[in-house]
Design a protein that fits this description.
about 270 residues; seven-stranded mixed sheet; two-stranded antiparallel ribbon; about 15% strand; globular
């Protein structure tokens, strides 16, 4: 990591045996990995031609969501998911996508997630099994989420000094664990959406803090996030850090609360 990119609000050596927590989607990941995996399954069920769609930004753009016409089971699932998002019922939306993947996914979500994050894989196989066709690969290469290299480097520097790195996210547990494995983060330090006592537990908002406390994290040294669903997490840590591309509301709160910005900015607009 370029040392000029971010001035830590705490000395790096002081992070030894301290907890550092990252949100995943939009923070460690460019785009929304949980949603990317969900859309991949919807595409698989609809058998859609992706050839007319082009975008190189590395995540699912609005043009994709508006122009692709799903069918049958996929159309009903997409409609339900988008209605929940539109009404700002975010935990319910994320719970729905996680339950849908659990119920309908024939291919292991862990494997599919790693395939999405490693687009150099053979276009028709993953771990020796034919699971994707050319159209699926085109979707992943154009719209698939990506690990942010600068955040990956930052997390690696924390690991070097002996910090405990955590991921807490509203994306499905298997999706989070697959991404964590590519960042050398232990699965025991990954908290995602999963079944708990028969219900889907979704780490979002205050639930992120509750899940961390249950896992033994009493007060993180640093917490990184990018959305309103991370607000409580950022306040929970000794030092909150928002991503540079966070929305205006969170940026206003960053000014009020003294949170840092990654990559570093001279001042928040």
């Amino acid at each position: 990591m370029n040392p000029e990119m971010f001035k830590l609000p705490v000395d790096l050596q002081d992070l030894q045996e301290r907890d550092v927590v990252f949100d995943m989607d939009g923070t460690l990941i460019e785009g929304d990995l949980g949603e990317t995996v969900f859309y991949w399954y919807l595409l698989k069920y609809s058998n859609i031609n992706l050839a007319p769609i082009r975008n190189n930004k590395g995540f699912i753009p609005d043009v994709f969501k508006s122009k692709v016409q799903f069918h049958g089971t996929s159309a009903r699932a997409l409609n339900r998911y988008q209605k929940l998002l539109k009404s700002r019922q975010y935990p319910r939306a994320y719970a729905y996508s996680a339950q849908w993947i659990e119920q309908y996914a024939e291919d292991n979500p862990y494997d599919i997630t790693q395939w999405i994050l490693a687009p150099h894989t053979h276009p028709f196989q993953f771990k020796g099994k034919a699971v994707l066709n050319h159209k699926d690969r085109e979707f992943i290469l154009k719209f698939g989420a990506r690990i942010k290299p600068e955040v990956k480097d930052l997390a690696a520097s924390f690991c070097t000094v002996g910090a405990r790195i955590w991921i807490v996210s509203a994306s499905p547990q298997q999706v989070c664990e697959a991404a964590a494995a590519m960042l050398d983060i232990k699965p025991s330090q990954v908290i995602g959406a999963k079944k708990s006592n028969g219900d889907m537990s979704v780490p979002w908002g205050e639930q992120k803090v509750r899940e961390l406390r249950t896992s033994g994290v009493l007060r993180p040294a640093l917490a990184f996030g990018d959305s309103g669903g991370d607000r409580e997490l950022l306040n929970f840590a000794d030092h909150g850090v928002i991503m540079k591309d966070s929305g205006p509301e969170l940026r206003r709160e960053a000014r009020q609360n003294g949170w840092s910005v990654f990559p570093e900015e001279k001042s928040l607009p």
